[in-house]
Amino acid sequence: MTSGQKLLIIVCGLPGTGKSTVAKILAQRLGAKLLRTDVIRKEIFRQPRYDAKNVDRVYRELFLQAQKSEETRNIILDATFSKKKHRKTALRIAKLLGRRFVIIETMCSVAVVHLRLNKRTHRSISDARFSQYLAMRQSFEKIREPHYVINTSKGQRAVFKKTAALVRQLI
Fold this sequence. Notes:
Elements: E1 7-12, H1 19-30, E2 33-36, H2 37-44, H3 52-67, E3 75-78, H4 84-96, E4 100-107, H5 110-119, H6 130-139, E5 148-151, H7 156-170
């Protein structure tokens, strides 16, 4: 990190692309506070829905929790961030908190996403299924800001190595 500046990192991408895996590795390696929309959604709603109103409510809570985070820790936000407005809000919060802002996008092949999402059970913290992936793929607003990309198609060992290499770049 440049001059000891703390980070606010968003880990974003479509459902099933490995966001939470990457976010957990980053949080461990950086000693960061990890905030996940999947967890927040379950705290707010008994039966989560993915309509615009509920999505915005979950992001508002995510950003509120980020702003209340300890000043001494890095912050990782794990969410799709499919809308530019949510990425811009995260950037604004990073500036407000005096943190360096980093975007990491996870991606993988459609076949891998299909396998991963079909393996999810009712115990999974994420409710996203392949139908949500297909819908979001159509509406995901391309990330035009400078960002890192981690392809998670090759499995957890490869993801760990790629994420660890990225951590070395960030610190």
